[in-house]
Amino acid sequence: xxxxxxxxxxxxxxxxxxxxxxxxxxxxxxxxxxxxxxxxxxxxxxxxxxxxxxxxxxxxxxxxxxxxxxxxxxxxxxxxxxxxxxxxxxxxxxxxxxxxxxxxxxxxxxxxxxxxxxxxxxxxxxxxxxxxxxxxxxxxxxxxxxxxxxxxxxxxxxxxxxxxxxxxxxxxxxxxxxxxxxxxxxxxxxxxxxxxxxxxxxxxxxxxxxxxxxxxxxxxxxxxxxxxxxxxxxxxxxxxxxxxxxxxxxxxxxxxxxxxxxxxxxxxxxxxxxxxxxxxxxxxxxxxxxxxxxxxxxxxxxxxxxxxxxxxxxxxxxxxxxxxxxxxxxxxxxxxxxxxxxxxxxxxxxxxxxxxxxxx
Length: 360
Description:
Number of helices: 17
Strand content: 15-25%
Radius of gyration: 21 Å
Distance between the termini: 37 Å
Helix content: 40-55%
Order of helices and strands: HEHEHEHHEHHHEHHEHEHEEHHEHHEH
Largest sheet: 8 strands, mixed
Number of strands: 11
Structural class: alpha/beta
């Protein structure tokens, strides 16, 4: 009874605080140029409360519990689809989104598999999941023919045993790591089959003793500083590491590669919770983000591709001309997408991931 009362009071206080002149946004860490946040406040007169998370699981827990107090959240496509089915989000009022005409039909065609007719969300960023490598350290340890573009770099125990001395991080994200392990094992990347899941577990458990950490953001600085030599992570994060190392002129050369065996293509979508305290302000934020120059500024800062076609003319060459960010047609054909895990399969995935992380 005490817990219920406290929860109710907290939810009421949060809702009461979110007045019409305040917009509360919950986004991934290290995922926007903070100058845009100030610009939004100056242009709209709305106060922006901006919080961050670093895993879809954290966001989903808040969304499914309800009364999150947020007006805009940013789930990945597979999680978005499941949350739409659960009634977590409200349909967008596109009459309030004048900049929606800027969106890229190629990306919208792909995100429709998660959000039919793109009725509940807009694409913020998209990218791939792959290999971040400290080229100098890895070639020193494995030789000049080190497989820096192959999943064997991280899933071959012989390689990982050697790389352990310079440090390897994996994403703390089972929906990213399991498909990669399935791909390496020659199985369908989107398989939910229990036997296939067991084989993916075998792949990961074979290298588990050599994984320094599972984390979904620490590898950015760790790679840039030379504290680790390999990370399996998100394309834009690793490219941020590359550029931070270059700016620091610390002798660390970071390269990103989408694995030759196939790489996951993901989409981060901005959506409005069904119980958002300020849906008007939420629409204003989405429309602001969909402005071509604003969206380009975000991509130029985080080094991720976005789903806004009109933004391309404002992207810096380092972004638009980098095939690690905007893949060419041949590379696009080697990218795969995955579907959400049903509740029963999700339990299997969670148990498997807990076992892998604990190493037992």
